[in-house]
Amino acid sequence: MNNNVIVIGGGPCGLEASAQLHKMGYNVILIEKDDHLGGHLAKWDRLFPEGIPAKELLDQLTGNINGVKYFLKTEVKSINLLDKEYNVILSNGITILAQAVLMASGFDLFPAQKKEEYGYGIYDHVITNADLENYFKTGKDCRIKQNPQRIGFVHCVGSRDEKAGNRYCSKVCCATAVKQACEVKEAFPDAQVYCFYMDLRMFGRGYEDLYLKAQRDCGVRFIRGRVSEVAEDLNKQLVVKAEDTLSGKPIKVTLDLLVLMSGMTNCSAGTRIAEMLSLKRDEDGFFTCKDTIFSLQESDKSGVFYAGACTGPKTLPDTLHEARAAALAINNYIKNKE
Amino acid sequence: MRERIAGGYDPFVLPFVIGMIFIFIYLFIALIRVFRAMPGSDRKKFFLSLLNPTIMYKNIRDVICDCLLHIKIFKRNALLGYMHASIAFGWFMLIVLGHIEVMLFVPQRNGTLHYPIFYRYFVAEQNATLKGAVFFFLMDFFLLVVLSGIGLAMYKRIRSTALGMRRTTKPCFADRVALWCLWSIFPLRLLAEGFTAGISGGSFLTKPVNMLFANFLGNDMNVLPTWWAYSTALGLFFLALPFSRYMHIPTEVLYIFLRNAGLKIHHPRKGLAEAEIYSCSSCGLCIDACPMNMQKKNLKYSSVYFVRFQRRNNKKKINEIAEKCLMCGKCVALCPVGVDSCGLKQAQRATVTDKLPYNYSFLASAHHQGGGPSMPLAPVSGSATGNEVTANAAAHGAGNATGNAAQSAVGKDKVLYFAGCMTHLTPAIIKSMTTIFDAAKEDYVFADKDGGVCCGRPLMLTGKVTAAKEVIERNREMIQDSGCKTVVLSCPICLKVLKEEYNLKGITLLHHTQYINQLIDQKRIRLNHSEESFVYHDPCELGRGCNIYQEPRNVLSAIGELKKANKEKKESICCGGSLGSLTLNYHDRVKITQESLKALTFDNPDKVITACPLCLKTFSDQSTTPVADIAQAVAGNLK
Amino acid sequence: MATFGYSLTPSSRIDLCKFNQEKWNRLVELESDVLKCMACGSCTASCTAGKFTRTSLRSAILYIQNGQEKQALELVQSCLLCGKCFMVCPRAINTRNLLLSINKIYSVK
Fold first, then answer.
1. Closest Cα in chain C to B461
2. Which residues of C touch A226 (CB under 8 A)?
3. What average pLDDT does this structure show over B474-480?
C-alpha cells in the first residue's frame, strides 16, 4: 500500500500540514491553484497583534516543506473513491492514488463591489483591507492620495450580512481593522482615522492591547454604527453616512480614503472539489465538520479531512493548530486502516 | 312555420322563467346598490360618459372584444381563447337567433321570456323550407360551437396545462352547482332539440341525433322530460349565478362602462370596486401570473382568491392578501376582464393604514433648509460656483449654502435630475448619469444630490393616501418652483407617481431610459457597439406601470446584442424587491428574485440590464451573471 | 412620612418593569424579524426623513423594550416608508412592516 496523502491548498494551513505529514513519513503531494505558495498570507504585509511581518512566517512555513512534492498552477480535475483510496486526476495530467485527502482550501475574500452602496470599484478612493496590505507591501496604490487627512474603516463588509448570504462573523476583521488603523496612522501621521463598527470582537490574547494602542497612541475614533451609504462629492472626496448609535444621531463625515474590511467567504475552488466528492456544506457554503467540538478535522466522508478556514473563518494561529491536528488525524486514520 | 302548441305555453318552461325573473330582479337591485355607493361626482361622470360618442364606441368595442370574443385570452393561448369565446359568443348567438326567429315567424309571441329559448318545442316545420333551413342550420351550428367549448372546458378541468394554464382555481360550492348546470345546459338542449327534431324539424346536428335515438328509444316519450331537464338546468344556473363565478357575465358589461367612464376606486368593496369584484370570472390566469406563486404555499395569495374573499367579506383573509401582494401589476396586466386588483388592494390597505398617526411637519422646514427634491439644487454642470458650494457644504456638513446658491442657478432650459431615494444606494447609476449628462453637454441640476424627500409613491402603495398627498403637494411646489421644463428620473417608482399624482403642467417627465434614447436619436451622444449581449429586465413600475418598453430596448440594441428573456415586457417577473408588499419577508423575496433571474438568463446573456435602482440592488445580491443599470451600460460604451 | 421632596421629580431612570410583554408579543407575531435587530444603525443612517427630523427605527425598538412607548412612536412618526432601510438592513428585517406594526399596536390608546 502506498502512503500518499494529497493536500489541497498551498496556504499557511496546507504548508504546515504538509510539513507535519512529511515528518511522519508520508508521501505528501501539495496542490496549489495559484502560481505561488502562501495563499492570502503571501499578499499580506504584517500580522496582528504584534505586527510581525507576514514574510517571516511564510519563510518559516515554506522552509519546513523540503521534500514535499508540490504543484503550482494546478487544480483538481476529478477525484473519486476507488476501493478505500482516492483517485485524483490533476489539471497537469498527473494521476495520484492517495490514502487520504486534506482539504486546506481556505477562504475567498468577500467581493466588496457586491455592497454597491459603499462604492468599491465606483469611487476613486475606496479600497479593501487586502488593497491596503498590498499598498503597505508595495507602496503603490493610485487610490491612496499623497497625504490623506481623514481615513475611515468600515467593519463587517459582507459579514454578519444576510443579504450578502453571510450571516456569520468573519472573526479576523476587527483585529485586522484595528491593526491597519494603527498602521495607516503611522504611515500618515496627520490623518484622523475613524473605525465604523457594529461590535468590536477583540477576543484574542493581546488584541485588547491593540485596541488600547489604537485609541491612546493613534487617536483612532471608534464609532458604533454601520455605514449605510457612501457618496462622492465634486472633489472626489467621500461622504460617509452612518448612525452614531451611542448618541442616537445620524452622522456624516467627509473622507479622503475609505477602507472596506472584506470578510471571508467559502472558497469557490474548494467548493468545486467538494461537489465532486459530494461533501456536506453548511448554508453559508463552508464545509460541515463531523462535529463542532471533538472531530473538527474530519468530514462526513472517511479519508477526507479538513483544516483551516475551509470550515469557517479562522485566525492564523487557529489555522496552524488545525493543520497539525489534521496531520495527526490523518496519521491515526491511515494507521487504523493498515 | 307554424305554432305547434296552442297558447305557446307548457309547464316545463317554469323553472327557466322563475330563474330568469329572479336574476333580473337581483341584477336590478345590485345595479342600484353599485350606483348608490358611488360618490355623486362619479355618478355624474358615468351618465355623462354615456352621451360621449367616443366612450360609447369604446364601450361597444370592449363589450364585443372582451365579453363575447375574449380577444385578450386568444392572444395568450388560442385554445383557451377559443374555449371562452365559443361558449360566450355561441351562446349569445343562440339567444339572438332565437329572438330573430320569434320576431320573423311568430311575431305574436314577441316579448315572452321563454319562447325564443324553447322555440323548437313550440313550432313545427315539416320540410326543410329555405327560411327554416337557414335558421335551423345556424342554430345547430352555434350549438355545436358552444358544445365544443364545453368539451374543452371539461378537458381543462382534467388537464389544465393543455390550455396553457399550470394552475387553475379551486371552485367553491356555488361555482360547482353553476358549473354543472352550465355544462349540462347545452348537451340537454341538444337532446331536447334532437328528440323534437322529428316534429319541429332540425338541421345537421339535431336531425342525426333524432335518427340515432329513434333506433332504440321511443323519441316521443323522451321529448317532455328532456325539455324539463333543459329548462331546469337553465333555471338552476340562473339561481346559482349570483353566488358563483358566472356572475361575471352580466357584471363585466357594467364594469366596462364604468371603467371607460374613467371612474376610480374609492372604497375597497363598494361602488366601482363591487363591479370589479363581481366581474372576476375566477379564470385563474392570475395564479400563474403571480410571482409569489413560485412557492406553493403562496398560492392562496393570488388575486382571484383576494376577490373571492372580498365577495365573502372575509376581513382577515382580505387584509392578509392585500398586505402580502407585491403590487407588481402582472395579474392586472394579464387579467382578461381587466380587474384592477392592485387598486382594490391599495384601497383595502387604506382602511387599515390611512388612519395610522404620522407627522410630516418637517416638510415645511425641509423646503427652506434646502433638502427637498429641487431645493439642494447643487449646480453640477462643471461651473466654478458648483465646486465651491459643494466643497463648502462638505466642510461644514450643511445643506443651507447649497440650497441658496442653487436657487439662482436654475434656469428655464435646464434639466432637473431627480435620482430618488433608492438610487443613493446604487452610486453606479448616479455616476453613470453624470457621465452621460457631461458627454451630452447637458445643462442640468442635480435635485437630490444630498438626498431628497421621498416621492410619495411608497406611501400611496401602503394605502397611506392622506399622508402621501401631503408629501406630494410639498414636492410638487418645489419642482414647479424650480422652473425646469424637463425632469429626468432614475427611479421608475418616482416616475409613476410624478406622472399620475403630481399634475405637473408643462413639465416633461422622462425616465433616464427615455432620456438616453432621446440623446441617441438627437445624436447628442455617440456610442460604441460592443460585442456584449444583454437581456433587459422590465421593472414593474416602468413597464406595466408607465408603459415604457421600447426605449430601453432601443438603447441596448445600440450598444450591443439584445437577447430575449423567457418572460418579458408585460409578463416580466418582479425582482422581488418591490416596495408594494408590506409583509413578504426577505427569504420569500429571495425565491422570487432567483426565479426572475432564471427567466432572464435563460438565453445566457453576458449581462442582465435593468432600469430601476431597486431591481439592480435586489438582483446584484443573488445573480451570478453581472447585473447593471442601463445608464451604466451606456456610460461604459460612450465614444 | 418624609419624602425629602425627591418623589416630586419623576426619575429619569428607565424602568424596565414598564415593558409591556403582551404588546411586544403581538408585535413579534406581526413581524417576527424584529427579534433579529442588532442595533447597527443602518436604518437610521440611511433614513430619508431622518435628515430633517429625528427618526430612528433602531432606537424605537430599544425604547419599546425599555417601556417608553410614547417616545418610540415619536421616533417613527415622520417615516415616509420609502424603503431604504429595508434595502440596507444587514439582517434583512422587513422594516416597513415592522414600522407599520409598531404604529398599529402602540398608537392605540
1. C81
2. 40-42, 45, 90
3. 90
DSSP B105: H
In a domain, B261, yes or no: no
Quote the minimal CA–CA distance from C41 to chain A in Å. Answer: 5
- Residue C70 sits at the chain B interface (C-beta within 8 Å): no
More confident residue, B299 or A180: A180
CATH number, position B142: 1.20.950
Residue A250's pLDDT is 92
Q: Smallest CA–CA separation between A234 and chain B, in Å?
A: 6
Residue that has been written with the C-alpha cell 352550465 in this structure: B182
Do A235 and B391 lie within an 8 Å CB cutoff? yes
CA-CA distance, B343 to A15, in Å (whole number)?
Answer: 64
Over residues B461-475, mean pLDDT: 94
Rounded CA gap, A205 and A130, in Å? 24
Measured between CA atoms, how close is A223 to chain B, in angstroms?
18
Give the CATH number, domain containing residue A223. Answer: 3.50.50.60
Task: Tell whether B565 is covered by a domain.
Answer: yes
Among A263, A296, A329, the domain boundary falls at A263
Domain extent, residue A241, equals 112-263
Pick C50's closest partner by Cβ from A199, A245, A250: A250
Query: Computed from CA positions of residues A61, A62, A64, A65, in that sequence, does the dihedral angle turn out positive or negative?
Result: positive
Supply the range of the domain harboring residue C68: 40-109
A161: distance to nearest CA of chain C, Å? 5
Interface of C with B in 11-50 (CB under 8 A): 31, 33, 46, 48-49
Same domain, A95 and A238: no
B99 falls within a domain: yes
Structural domain total, chain A:
2
Distance, CA of B467 to CA of A233 (rounded, Å): 33
Residue C84 clears pLDDT 60, i.e. is over it = yes
Burial class from Cβ neighbours inside 10 Å (0-12, 13-18, 19+) for residue A266 reads buried
- The whole-model pTM stands at 0.88
pLDDT at A266: 95
Q: Are residues B555 and B539 in the same domain?
A: yes
Nearest to A163 among C39, C44, C92 (CB): C92
Contacts for B396 with CB less than 8 Å, ≥ 6 apart: none
Mean pLDDT of chain A: 95
Nearest to B362 among C31, C52, C96 (CB): C52
Enclosing domain of residue B578: 528-635
